[in-house]
Specification:
The complex is a heterodimer of chains A (187) and B (87). Chain A is mostly beta strands and 187 residues long. In chain A, 13% of the residues lie in helices and 36% in strands. Chain A has helices spanning 5-13, 61-68, 114-117, 174-177; strands at 17-20, 35-46, 69-73, 79-81, 86-97, 106-111, 121-122, 129-130, 135-144, 150-152, 157-165. In chain A, the strands form 2 sheets. In chain A, strands 1, 2, 3, 5, 6, 7, 8, 9 and 11 form a 9-stranded antiparallel sheet that branches. In chain A, strands 4-10 form a two-stranded antiparallel ribbon. The longest helix of chain A is centred in the first third of the chain and has 9 residues, at 5-13. Chain A is globular. The two termini of chain A are 37 Å apart. By secondary structure, chain B is an all-beta fold. Chain B has one domain. Chain B is 0% helix and 59% strand. Chain B has no helices and 9 strands. Chain B has strands spanning 2-6, 9-12, 18-24, 30-36, 40-43, 46-56, 60-64, 76-80, 84-86. In chain B, the strands form 2 sheets. In chain B, strands 1, 5, 6, 7, 8 and 9 form a 6-stranded antiparallel sheet that branches. In chain B, a hairpin with a 5-residue loop joins strand 3 (18-24) and strand 4 (30-36). Classes of the chains: A mainly beta (187), B mainly beta (87). The A-B interface holds A 20, 40, 42, 44, 56, 60-62, 65-66, 69, 71, 88, 90, 94, 98-101, 131-137, 139, 170-172, 174, 177-179, 181, 183 and B 1-2, 11-12, 14-18, 20, 27, 32, 34-36, 38-39, 50, 52, 54-55, 57, 60, 62, 64-67, 70-71, 73, 75-76.
Chain lengths: 187, 87
């Protein structure tokens, strides 16, 4: 079940959902069933003309990612995301979806905004889920699929977060997983 | 319940607000993830990552990592209790 704006406020007030900095919880940021999030001030931009490939089985992917991307602060007059250009960004807000025993628990999905989608902006590829227990800023995979550049500015509303209630306790019962050593459950 | 997981190493992340974290599961496998600096603390020469504790037994615990690790299939990880510290 998707949380309404009032249910989102309640979960924030109860500390189950933490958002920092907390945006104004009014109609500018809180839709009927979603919270708008803002763009942070740094982009992670892939370097051009490197001769390498991502291979998750070889070496540390983190090291490769660091080689491939360079951080660029978004200028105050904006960063033009050119047609078919791909960059990583993150939200200004740090989100925590707390798992507290005996309390409601929430997961979320990050989605684009229709106004930006009409310009051709995609804000994630196939990885919209923010699982219960997540804590951090949300990484956005931005790609301009349109024909014209899109100006990105720090603090602009870039995406929306839809919260969903998790049913059932998130507990690993001893009988279920305890001391399992393989995905098949062989001890 | 939140607890602190002792990390093997931290290094620069892909954004100014994050770091790359390396830690170890109870099988000795090293895993890495990007984590926000706000859920990292340094104490007595060690670095810790804030995680959610799901289950604790005599020697091992099951925790939920705050973001996806690159080398493992799940954010739910088994670690030795000696790597954990109460928040």
């Amino acid at each position: 079940m998707i949380l309404s704006n009032e249910a989102i406020k309640k979960a924030i007030n109860e500390g189950i959902i933490e958002i920092d900095p907390l945006p104004p919880l009014d109609e500018t940021m809180l839709d009927t069933t979603a919270l708008n999030l803002r763009l942070g001030n740094v982009l992670s931009v892939p370097k051009k003309s490197l001769s390498l490939s991502f291979d998750l089985k070889k070496g540390k992917i983190i090291d490769t990612l660091r080689i491939v991307y360079e951080q660029k602060e978004i200028p105050s007059d904006g960063y033009p995301l050119e047609p078919y250009q791909f960059v990583l960004a993150n939200t200004m807000e740090h989100i925590t979806l707390n798992i507290k025993q005996g309390k409601p628990c929430y997961a979320a999905r990050v989605e684009g905004k229709s106004s930006l989608a009409r310009c051709g902006l995609m804000i994630h590829f196939t990885a919209p889920t923010i699982h219960a227990g997540f804590s951090g800023t949300i990484t956005l995979e931005l790609m301009n699929l349109g024909q014209y550049s899109i100006i990105l500015r720090p603090g602009m509303q870039i995406c929306q977060l839809i919260f969903e209630a998790v049913e059932g306790e998130i507990i690993l019962r001893e009988s279920q997983f305890h001391l399992q050593r393989t995905p098949e459950g062989i001890k | 319940m939140q607890v602190w997981l002792r990390c093997n190493a931290i290094s620069e992340g892909m954004f100014p607000n994050e770091v790359a974290v390396e830690a170890q599961n109870s099988d000795g496998q090293t895993f890495s993830l990007f984590a926000d600096k706000r859920i990292i603390k340094k104490e007595n020469g060690s670095t810790y990552l804030k995680v959610t504790l799901l289950e604790k037994t005599e020697n091992e615990s099951v925790i939920v990592l705050p973001t996806d690790p690159h080398e493992l299939q799940s954010r739910i990880v088994r670690v030795n209790n000696s790597f954990l510290k109460e928040a």
